[in-house]
Design goal:
By secondary structure, the protein is mainly α. It has 7 helices and no strands. 75% of the residues lie in helices and 0% in strands. The relative contact order is 0.16.
Length: 247
């Protein structure tokens, strides 16, 4: 599958929720780009906690489904209300996971934009700032690929997730068989693990970017201080000790 088709697949997989408001690339309109990367770090840290919580929930629901599968030969014979207590929370957690994944992707693209602007603003900076945008871009592409591979490993065909309606219909279709339900649950666990790991990596990238900006700002300040001190020394050197100025 091409990267483009994987992106389409992932953007609609498992009941996609609306994209977050900061998806356009900036986090706060009036903030400078050094300030924005700090805001990005705060947002990523918050998202990492959410991802971990949802991953725990999904794993729990997936384990519950597996236990039920082992208890009965056909869960369709269960009362609907009993099965709904397991399946509905799992689907709800999948929707939350999708929202978190979309927000992480938006933060990744925002990071690309911030990194590019920082490279423009700090043209004398080192590779940590110059390459920041491309590091974010690589994260986006790698995360998309890892997510697609994780889901496809559970034999969920990409073409069945081409639209939001198709995604929900596929989940409903899978729910008609025990094997289908197990595939959805296993895919959810795999997707949750990829999301949690990728957001942790995004946090590391953002923190490294913040450190690079602070280091460059400190370097600039130190250079200005040296220049100012040199100018002051030049201004006051000689002074009244110059014999030609003595009476």
């Amino acid at each position: 599958m091409s990267i483009q088709s994987k992106t389409v697949f992932l953007s609609t997989i498992l009941a996609l929720l609306p994209a977050p408001a900061f998806a356009g690339g900036t986090l706060t309109g009036g903030a400078t780009f050094p300030e924005q990367i700090v805001q990005e770090g705060t947002a990523v840290q918050s998202l990492a906690k959410q991802a971990q919580e949802v991953t725990t929930q999904i794993s729990m629901y997936a384990n519950d489904i597996e236990r039920y599968q082992n208890m009965v030969t056909n869960t369709l014979d269960m009362p609907a209300s009993m099965f709904a207590k397991i399946w509905n929370p799992l689907v709800g957690s999948i929707q939350k996971l999708t929202a978190i994944y979309n927000q992480a992707q938006a933060l990744g693209y925002a990071g690309q934009n911030i990194g590019a602007q920082l490279a423009q603003e700090y043209q004398g900076a080192g590779s940590s700032i110059k390459n920041l945008s491309s590091v974010y871009a690589n994260w986006n592409q790698t995360t998309n690929t890892d997510m697609a591979d994780a889901l496809e490993s559970q034999h969920l065909a990409a073409q069945n997730f081409a639209t939001q309606d198709a995604s929900m219909q596929t989940i409903q279709n899978e729910a008609q068989t025990a094997q289908g339900r197990e595939q959805v649950a296993a895919a959810a666990v795999a997707a949750a693990n990829v999301t949690t790991k990728s957001i942790q990596q995004l946090e590391q990238i953002t923190m490294a970017g913040q450190d690079a900006v602070l280091a460059y700002q400190r370097q600039q300040k130190a250079e200005k201080n040296v220049t100012a001190q040199a100018a002051a020394n030049g201004l006051f050197s000689g002074g009244t000790n110059n014999p030609s100025l003595l009476p």
